[in-house]
Design goal:
By secondary structure, the chain is mostly helical. The chain contains 12 helices and 2 strands, in the order αββααααααααααα. The chain has helices at about 1-25, 45-70, 70-75, 80-110, 115-145, 150-170, 175-190, 195-205, 210-240, 245-250, 255-275, 275-280; strands spanning about 35, 40.
């Protein structure tokens, strides 16, 4: 109980600290959205408070899981490979949501293009290329698995590395058509990582635990990816006066993504081979 209260206190302090830090980065102080008593709450405060609330909910869920279902807790949160996969995916989705949220605005403002034209082309890219990349990524991941137990992750890891040069190439485009063709390649690489990582996450736990594994994974990627990606891009764009620089700034997270993926790739065979033994040691009746 004392540990939980200490963690909540750290979350509150982190929310206050990050709010003050990001508010200090903008030239014009953000106007309050509303007041809690005499305390003004800005968009920055609301952003970090929402993420803090999400962390508190996750903390409570993890603690309850530890008490109610220790085998699932051990395979999810006592597993360095599962934690590494979740961290890599959350940071990667921060990049992805940062990119997709502002790609429309960038095309319209940079190339003085018609919003309807840009919207139609981006919808085609998002739907068509996204579908093809997901199907191809899944097929390629399963094909690579025939040659190595790490095969699926090699495909995902390669896609996660490939997005960085493709992102810089895309936002160096000088015409709208050039931008869209390059954006297609970037979108393909951006999406192709998912099947291999998602399938690996299901293989790291027992069948009955797959729902909990998917829930924790989706919660982390949604909370941090969607919560932080657009916010960071907007913040840095306002600070630098350049939307492209704001979008590209989230790719500075790539070294952290790669480190987490390396930990996952290195320990994967042992983690998969010992999952049943670790579950039994935690009390699983199998």
């Amino acid at each position: 109980m004392a540990l939980s209260f200490a963690a909540l206190a750290m979350i509150v302090l982190a929310v206050i600290g990050m709010t003050r830090f990001t508010e200090g980065l903008v030239s014009t102080p953000p106007a309050p959205l509303f007041h809690l008593g005499s305390m003004p709450v800005t968009s920055h405060g609301l952003e970090w408070a929402t993420i803090g609330l999400g962390l508190a909910v996750v903390l409570g869920w993890v603690q309850s899981l530890k008490q109610a279902d220790r085998p699932t807790y051990k395979l999810l949160w006592g597993n360095p490979q599962m934690i590494s996969m979740t961290v890599a995916s959350a940071l990667y989705m921060t990049q992805t949501y940062g990119l997709t949220t502002f790609s429309f605005k960038y095309a319209v403002t940079q190339f003085h293009a018609s919003p309807s034209e840009v919207g139609a082309k981006l919808a085609l890219v998002t739907g068509g290329v996204g579908l093809i990349a997901t199907l191809f990524g899944g097929w390629l991941a399963d094909f690579a698995l025939r040659f190595s137990p790490r095969g699926r992750l090699y495909v995902s890891f390669g896609a996660m590395i490939g997005v960085v040069p493709l992102a810089y190439l895309t936002f160096a485009a000088t015409t709208l058509d050039q931008y869209f063709w390059r954006y297609c390649l970037l979108s393909f690489s951006t999406v192709m990582w998912l099947p291999g990582v998602a399938a690996t996450g299901q293989e790291l736990v027992l069948p009955r635990m797959r729902g909990a594994a998917a829930a924790s994974y989706n919660l982390a990627t949604g909370m941090f990816g969607l919560g932080l990606g657009p916010f960071l891009v907007g913040l840095i764009s306002d600070k630098t006066g350049s939307l492209s620089q704001g979008i590209l700034s989230v790719y500075w997270l790539s070294p952290l993504v790669w480190i987490a993926m390396f930990i996952l790739v290195k320990g994967l065979p042992k983690a998969e081979a010992t999952r049943l033994d670790r579950a039994r040691a935690a009390g699983e009746p199998v």
